[in-house]
Amino acid sequence: MTFPKEVSIVEVGPRDGLQNEKQTLRVEQKVELIKLLSETGLNRIEAGSFVSPKWVPQMANSGEVIKALNSKANIRYSALTPNLKGLEAAIESGVKEVAVFGAASESFSQKNINCSISESLKRFEALFELANHNNIKVRGYVSCVMGCPYEGDILPKAVTQVSKELIDMGCYEVSLGDTIGVGTPKATSVMLDDVLKEIDVSKIAAHFHDTYGQALVNLYTALGYGVSTIDSAVAGLGGCPYAKGASGNVATEDVLYMLNGMDISTGVNMNKLLVASSYISDVLGRSPVSKSANALLGR
Ligand code: HMG
Ligand code: MG
Prior knowledge:
Elements: E1 8-11, H1 13-17, H2 27-38, E2 44-49, H3 62-68, E3 76-80, H4 84-93, E4 97-103, H5 106-113, H6 117-133, E5 137-143, H7 156-169, E6 174-178, H8 185-198, E7 204-208, H9 215-224, E8 229-232, H10 252-261, H11 270-284, H12 291-297
Parallel strand pairs: 1-8, 2-3, 3-4, 4-5, 5-6, 6-7, 7-8
Helix pairs in contact: 2-3, 2-11, 3-4, 6-7, 7-8, 8-9, 10-11
The structure holds 3-hydroxy-3-methylglutaryl-coenzyme A and magnesium ion (MG).
Magnesium ion binds at residues 16, 177, 179, 207, 209, 240, 249.
């Protein structure tokens, strides 16, 4: 197996993590977390989400959070936008990159964004016009790539089809979400064998939740296919409010420990990452959901 020499880590804790916490963090707390993450060497940070506050109240203050960040030239802050209304709010906040999110499962699409897969793609098309006009980069997510909480198994070709449509529409990259963390190395291979027939590996990111403890081994499998963009959340925060039982994203600390051990460079400093991990864990009143963080912090 040939592994990439470098991996770009996309930190999704402030969005994917905090959207699923019972308590909504205050603007200052989120800003402090993102500030600490910005000092680690991470240069892609998903800072919030412009979705309906009735659907995800934890993200309602995303505009204030993003406005309060001192945009550093070398850091790309981004936010989720499900529709034009979300994109307009994102533009108003000053964010330069957004993400649309679709699914490979019809039932999940309905539960998460209240429309079918094909309707969601139509919505995104309208969003692209405004994004292009404002020079905003658009990333795409596909959820349920290895299983759905409502439909069970998902065919790899359903993942490939939606991913390809997102790329053709103008997404610079598609992040493949194992939303409920059910994948295994074999399922990861079967899915990637199909997706990579249609899409160049440089446009693919892996976004694995760790519900069944499989995220790292699935990432290792994806690295073997040449995937070199990995989404993760500091302290293993996360989940998805519309995927019952989905636990956190794979922890950034665990991904970094593995990549460091494989001599794959990321530009991220572990000690600084542990500062951010301790901060958010203290705010939430619990230990990080990361074996590496707990071992290194001696908790
Ligand atoms: P809807 O109810 O069909 O929308 O929801 P609507 O257009 O009929 O509007 C209904 C109300 O929402 C209206 O307000 C709109 O103004 C408002 P009202 O008149 O009732 O007061 N509204 C909005 N408000 C703020 N921002 C907006 C917005 N749009 C409409 N952008 C909608 C459709 C998509 C809005 C809703 O279903 C929604 O917000 N869903 C988001 C769910 C979500 O955030 N899920 C978690 C993120 S995805 C995820 O975690 C997976 C991922 O991590 C990858 C993986 O792990 O697989 C990315
Ligand atoms: Mg997710």
